[in-house]
Amino acid sequence: MIIYSLYHDESMAYPKGEGASFMPGEAYPEYPFGVDCVAPNANAVYAGVRETLRLAGLDAENYGTAAWNPLGAYIEPGMRVLVKPNLVMHENPTANGTDCLYTHPSVVAAVIDYVVVALKGKGTIVLADAPMQSCDFDALVGQSGLRDLVLWYRSRGVDIELKDMRGLKSVNTAAGLEQELVEGATGEVIDLGTDSCFAGLPKERIDGLRITNYDPAELKRHHTQDRHEYYVSSCLLDADVVVNLPKAKTHRKAGVTGALKNMVGVNVRKEYLPHHSNGSAAEGFDEYEGANLFKRLMDDALDAGNGMLAQGPSCARRVLAFLARGFRYLGKRTAPDAYTEGSWFGNDTIWRTVLDLNKIVFFGDKDGVMRDEPQRRMVVLCDMVTVGQGEGPLLPEPGEWHMLAFCDDPCVHDVAMARMMGTDPSIITTVGKALVYDGPYAWRDASAGLPVCHSNDPAFDGVRVDELNEDMRYKAKPTSGWAARFAREG
């Protein structure tokens, strides 16, 4: 039976200021590093992670003793464990900071401690993500404290690695945007073929698949009527267990991003990942709603410019970018809708990419071969202390939910998360499609009932996950492209 727990404490906040630490504020019996490694101040997030795992009923008979091993049902000594936070970007261009942008390191650290407990000194932890192409990974892991955290674990004898799973990144230079290969990024190209959620779409729709700021010709090489390829990191394929640590946020294309969408970050090359299809819904595509000449011209200019990315900055690219901006301006003022780049509730592409990737996460073996039996397990612990709302995932503003959630299925987790953000799987296509999916490489029984929530909050305890937050006491502000469809009636 799938487990879901939700911890809620209005006083829970991330450790901040002088003396702040990711270590626990007290020496819990199971803590693997001893009393000398306890923080001088209280750490409400660490205590919250611990309580979230307790509420899930994990290893209940040993709770309160040194033998308590809440993740022991999923992780065994000798395993290789991928810990996958949502790191996305190193900065929030708004004035809203990073607490609402990426998974907070205090959550990451507390979960890693329980992975250490489960491994019992044998095995490897890989802390990794593939953030946005323009993310400065070194700056992110430096300013967040993640690099120092990994060094601290190594000094205590923990076998842990910190990895950037991207194979390609972009760097802003005086001449413009330049692409660079990331050294050491490895993986396997996996073709789902007719088992892909894109299989059966018309040729025109497949030819129109795009991802913003990537060469469309490269994507076309990997997604045809018969081929649907993804370049997946060895960090994922070599793992025995995935510890999925999403940040609950709104998302311009998917509506929300949680455990399912977080698996987009296991890719080596993002140009294998369709995000929308160029053209209007009225014409059979999904970038925007109504047909518009200027938006079509914008797409043509963007395609031409993105096709020149590998050549580096140039006058031609600058001219094309200028034209694209002009056509975008005219399109937004003459079209029946303001949507572009698939950033609206009618996006019918991103859910297919997300479901395909989750199939690979569960059924792709270490050599990139899809197997009939699941190859690894997943547990989810979601950072909802501060959620990202508004123009997520890259320009979020904070929502103070003061919550943490645990689940051992990404789809069930996202059902609950969507409800807790004031929307519903019937609205969020990615979650709704995953909930009923029973095709090739389905990792859960779509006909199975949904679990109830185990919570310290009486408003949520014992409530089935698809009925949580019925009174809409929690409502995330949606992105502009989802404002007309996001909120359910409460």
Element layout with pairings:
Layout: E1 4-8, H1 44-55, E2 80-85, H2 105-119, E3 124-129, H3 137-144, H4 146-155, E4 160-164, E5 168-173, E6 176-181, E7 187-191, H5 203-207, E8 209-210, H6 216-222, E9 229-233, H7 234-237, E10 241-245, E11 247-251, E12 255-257, E13 276-277, H8 293-306, H9 315-334, H10 350-363, E14 377-391, E15 395-407, H11 410-420, H12 429-436, E16 454-455
Parallel strand pairs: 1-16, 2-3, 2-10, 3-4, 10-14, 11-14
Antiparallel strand pairs: 1-15, 5-6, 7-9, 8-13, 11-12, 14-15
Query: How would you spell out the order of helices and strands?
Result: EHEHEHHEEEEHEHEHEEEEHHHEEHHE
Shape: globular
Number of strands: 16
Helix content: 25-40%
- Based on secondary structure, the structural category is alpha/beta
As residue ranges, the low-confidence spans are: none
Q: Report the sheet-strand fraction.
A: 15-25%
**How many helix segments?**
12
What's the mean pLDDT score?
A: 95
Specify Rg, calculated over alpha carbons: 22 Å
User: Based on the structure, what is the oligomeric state of the protein chains?
Assistant: single chain
Query: What separation lies between the terminal Cα atoms?
Result: 29 Å
The description of the largest β-sheet is: 10 strands, mixed
